Amino acid sequence: MYDSKAVRKQYASVFANLLQLDTDSLVSKHDIASELFMNQGITFTVYDNDEGIERIFPFDIIPRIITGTEWQQIEQGIAQRLKALNLFLKDVYNEQQIIRDHIIPASLIASCPHYKREVFGIKVPYDIYVHISGIDLIRGNDGVLYVLEDNLRTPSGVSYMLENREVTKRIFPDMLASNNVRRISHYPVLLHEILLELASTQVSNPRVVLLTPGIYNSAYYEHSFLARQMGIDLVEGRDLLVDNHKVYMKTTKGLEQVHVIYRRLDDEYLDPLVFMKNSVLGVPGLIGAYRKGNVAIVNALGNGVADDKAVYAYVPAMIKYYLNEDPILQNVPTYQLSNPEAMHYVFENYRNMVIKNTNQSGGYGMVMGNTISEKEWLRAKVIIENNPRNYIAQPIVQLSTVPCFINGNIEPRHVDLRPYALYGPKGIKLVPGGLTRVALKAGSLVVNSSQGGGSKDTWIVDE
Amino acid sequence: MLSRIADSLFWLNRYMERTQSILRVIRSHYIISLDKDAIGSTTWRPILEIFAQLTDSEITQIEAKPDIVLQKILTESTNPNSIKTIVARARENARGVQNHITKELWEAVNSMYHLTNKPYLNQKLSGPEALEVVDQLMRQSVLYAGIADITMPRGMGWDFMKLGKYLERSMETIVITDKQCQLFGYDMQQESDITKWRFLLMSLAGYEVYLKTYQTFRHNNNILHQMLLNEHYPHSVIFSLTRINRYLRDVIKDNESNEKLALIRTFGRLYSKVNYMDPERLETMDSRAFFKELRNELLVFHNQLEKVFFSY
């Protein structure tokens, strides 16, 4: 909110507005917001003693502001990165030119658990693999935006982005109106259009469904929210069946063919005939229908190879290789621990490093060098040495902070930003906004909701 | 409509109907049991026999302890037919179809669920406030029915909800009436005092209707008439079957399965059996056998309905 001297320009009007409110009215706005989330059932489920408890995702009432100019850079940077990642996926599941040209080592791909040999050679509609992505960005203490992580499988959180805005409309209506904040509410419409466009052109009235693991999934709220916003059926695996390489859903009238599936189910669970044999969430025969081109699956299968944390280090090289451009958004420097020299360097300097497991997300399996105890570090070190391919290290970036309303005071907290990009036959589109995740604990750099993070409404304002 | 969605809507409404019916029975029994021996049974045995799935000796142990019985039927989570379990199941079904029911309806189920999980309920049930708890639950359950009626759009989903409701209601009427007849030893020719029938009538919200409709003293025949054939009484079997007939016609129109004709025939037979009964000879028929037959045929109908619409 502040630069070295004064309140930043884009925050001036919000700051002036907030000055007019006393602590009590801010507290009451905070309470209203929490109540709105609870009543609407915008909750995620935490499991404790076999009993599911519903919690709201903590929401901070003070919006985060990003200027139009900054946004332009984000937009272009993400579009560029997505284009390259998409070309990479097409390449790696077909000709594998990038490996032959020794840009990316074959061993890295071969050892990636998310590389799915089962979908090698499958042609996907319009050569688009990453229809929906949530690329995480952070701002370092040098003021530069970095890409922290590419989420190209089933990124979640978009419903929070939309609901956060709706709640802000209720608690700060005048502030929102007077700031020229760009609109985000058309996200479901854009998504629906893309899903419809992916159906075979020979079908005049394609049927699109959203495949959910079911009511016990922690993101079930988001699944039902998106299905409702798009007016499509929310289905579970048991609602679908495959007959003669076509996918049908079981309705009260009989079977009806499904043309496009927006799945919120991981690759491994999709088809027990191809992947995990004991998965009851998936649909037997689905991959066969996909291979035949009778059904489009969004996002494509096997995308995990492109958002693998070890492959991440090669994304700038991919941009150069496929697009012959310099990356607009920088990577955080990344050390592959499979490289002995890098491992040595990281172990020497572990206090300034964060070490991440390449196969886990949600902040699990992560070592923060600045807070870990000596004893824990020795234990972690052994685990890492046993399987260095599964680990990367990055210097700890001091995430930027924004003002938050915490326990009656305005305090700085670290944040990241996840803008949502949609890639359809007509190109890449970003809704101007995103999910700002906040590390609610003072000083903490971990923003994941499963690790005590919250979120904020994110405004893109034109100066 | 997805079969799973239809199934969930059907069961959501069925469970909520069952909740209301159990609460009404409990309430009537609780009040009437304060007058000793007014209903042919001094204890909660018949209620436990209908709703609790206990062995004979287990019933003997608790039948005279109203607080334990109330906990068993209302709040015990190990009883598969307690209000707490049934409401939890209704909510489970509602959660799975959240985008097919209105927000208000979801909130009605959700708040009833939270009410049944309040830790203070058991304590209240064992004291003088027991009836207050039952009333509170009852209010929530009729609120649900009202909200469903006011906010839910009509169409396929609504038809399945109604099928669930009326199938459940006809079943409850048959089971509860049968239990009452059993207490009289199925001897419908003997003369019974109207006060002996009061529990049945109050449990099915029919006492006032009865007094206003039937002016003769052939109570046994009249009661059976009201429970089976009175078209203006919303808990009579014929009332429910007439509605099932209507909603079934609506949902079956577009269905293309082979079992559809068998379903229509089964229901037709069941409907005619009740519709063309001789109202003058109700008290002389073998009521035990008749109720049993009716129940079995309803079960067959339900199984076929599942096969045609819900098999997924």
TrEMBL record, chain A:
InterPro entries: ATP-dep_Glu-Cys_Ligase-2, CP_ATPgrasp_2, UCP005522. Gene3D superfamilies: 3.30.1490.270, 3.40.50.11290. It comes from the Bacteria. Residues 63-439 form the Circularly permuted ATP-grasp type domain. Transmembrane segments: none annotated. Pfam families: CP_ATPgrasp_2. PANTHER family: BLR5612 PROTEIN, SLL1039 PROTEIN. This is Uncharacterized conserved protein, circularly permuted ATPgrasp superfamily. It comes from Parapedobacter luteus.
UniProtKB/TrEMBL annotation, chain B:
It comes from Parapedobacter luteus. It comes from the Bacteria. This is Uncharacterized conserved protein, Alpha-E superfamily. Residues 1-310 form the DUF403 domain.
